[in-house]
Amino acid sequence: MQAQAAEALQTITREVCQGWLAPRAKDSHKGDFGNVGVIGGAAGMVGAALLAGRAALHLGAGRVYVGLLDECIAVDLVQPELMLPAPETLLSLSAPACLVVGPGLGRSERAVRLLYEALQTPLPLLIDADGLNLLAATPALQAALRERTQPSLLTPHPGEAGRLLGSSSRAIQADRPGSVRALVARYGCTVVLKGAGSLILGPGGRIWRNPTGNPGMAAPGMGDVLAGVIAALAAQGLPLEQAAVLGVYLHGAAADAAVADGVGPVGLTAGEVARYARRLLNAWVYGGTIPADTGAV
Questions:
Q1: Looking at residue 287, what is its pLDDT?
Q2: Looking at residue 162, which CATH number applies to its domain?
């Protein structure tokens, strides 16, 4: 069965993604590029939500809102372009948009309520990190996800995938194609199974395999950045599964570009990958080569 699953994998290439995002018109304005909302950042975990928001901003979303559960934070001093409203306000975010729930969310009653209410929105929804752990532990959330008619995306690493399937990370890794199929069948939505050779599968679709990335990505915050990258692409008009395919490929390619530039693999950070992803996407859309990193935010 594993051999049959392996035959069905479609490797992502730059040629596959060519033309998915077009150059911007000269008379563009920020309203043309959608909204991203990130809900997360409980006390002690604010960085996760900010990393996702910063990545969405770097990858071209028109407006980015980060709803932090830690209400002590009023501004991101590194990226003041981010808006930090109350998380509940993001549930009525104007379309086109993509809503991300989970980075640093925690497992409080408020977190459960926010995820449940996010599942009721008409927006494309990406669930990551603590959002996945809450989903795995809460049957009512699982039922709400299966009832959604709008696009939904889960982005688990093997440990989270094991919890979602009532299994273990070892079992997930033993049959990654079978695991991603099982996740899609159980939850009825698109899934990115993260890890070396990340797999992407939507209901009734093919399994995409990502060839980019390197060991430098085994570092804190990489998944948060990936969530922001995918959300930004979706907010700019890509269908959520297509945004996931391009986002995963771009995320890994950005890490590879950083390493080629001497930034890592040891000590490569998630924030650096977001900056390289911005440079790389612009090079792909507008032509040219990726410039060296200057260290600027």
A1: 87
A2: 3.40.1190.20
Rounded distance between C-alpha atoms, residue 184 and residue 228, angstroms: 22
With 0-12 CB in 10 A as exposed, 13-18 as middle and 19+ as buried, what is 57?
Answer: buried
Q: Tokens for 99, please give them.
A: 């809503």
With respect to residue 291, please indicate whether it lies within any of the assigned structural domains. no
What rounded mean pLDDT belongs to the chain?
94
Name the residue with tokens 């594993």.
2
* CA distances for 78 relative to 52, 63, 188, 199, 296, angstroms: 13, 16, 38, 33, 11
120-158, pLDDT tens digit by residue? 999 999 999 999 999 999 999 999 999 999 999 999 999
Would you say residue 40 lies in a domain? Answer: yes
Q: How many domains does the chain have?
A: 1
pTM as predicted? 0.94
Q: Is the pLDDT of residue 8 over 60?
A: yes
Instruction: Report if residue 74 sits inside a domain.
Output: yes
